[in-house]
Amino acid sequence: MEVLVVGAGSMGRWLGQVFVADVGPSLPATARDECTVTYYDRSNAAATQAAKATGGHTVTSVTQEYDVVAIAVPISAAPTAIASHAGNATCAVVDVTGTMKKPVEALRSNASAVERCSLHPLFAPPNEPGNVPVVTDKDGPVTTFIQETLEARGNNVFETTPEEHDSAMKTVQASAHAAIMAYSLAGESVPDRFQTAVSKELSALVEQVGGNEPSVYGEIQAAFEGAEDVAAAANKLAVASESEFEQLYDKI
């Protein structure tokens, strides 16, 4: 099975490893043994690094057909990347870009004849295993293989809809990240001996969020509107009277 991964960032490298993982029984042994992963990225250096990590290959342009095309580009580039490369797939197209409504629409428009699914691992690759919502728009051996392999790696894979997924991401990603970043930006450095149980946990979250690529978080904030809700809620707390504060507190 020949796989093209479009996008050689951390998620693209992780997805390439999923295809060559020594777990998951749904494909014949010969198909797994002969699975090759090729990376395409605007950065040749990134593609080369990804290929070394998985024993794969690189291309500087996509001109041939592959059994599977996997799209692992930033959120804003997903529809264009799907439109550009879905036609190179003979069996399946997979998307792991972070939103689902627009990618699933693009998959339906550009890959109607093959298997297709949209996955969103809700973790950075080093933190696997975790939750993986999936929209299987057209199932088959490849989409089954991917889901079984992810489950064999310890992940909780579950079906959802594009609307349900994107609505949830507004809270669990955009709002959550905005709240953590706002706490960090608003607060001051405090010696450890003054930390409370709550502030200690928040500081750990700040460290986790702050240890990644800012562009990834910027893409999430641009895709979902949760940050505005956090700002509005913080403003309510800041100007609330005693009785209004108690009313707000009772809602948590």
TrEMBL record:
Q: Which residues form the Prephenate/arogenate dehydrogenase domain?
A: 1-252
Q: Which InterPro entries match?
A: 6-PGluconate_DH-like_C_sf (IPR008927), NAD(P)-bd_dom_sf (IPR036291), PDH_N (IPR046826), Preph/Arog_dehydrog (IPR050812), Prephen_DH (IPR003099)
> Which keywords does the record carry?
Oxidoreductase
Keyword Oxidoreductase (UniProt): yes
Say if the entry is tagged with keyword Lipid biosynthesis.
no
Its domain of life reads Archaea
Name one molecular function that GO assigns to this entry.
prephenate dehydrogenase (NAD+) activity
Which PANTHER family does the entry mention?
Answer: PREPHENATE DEHYDROGENASE, PREPHENATE DEHYDROGENASE [NADP(+)]
Protein name, as recorded: Prephenate dehydrogenase/arogenate dehydrogenase family protein
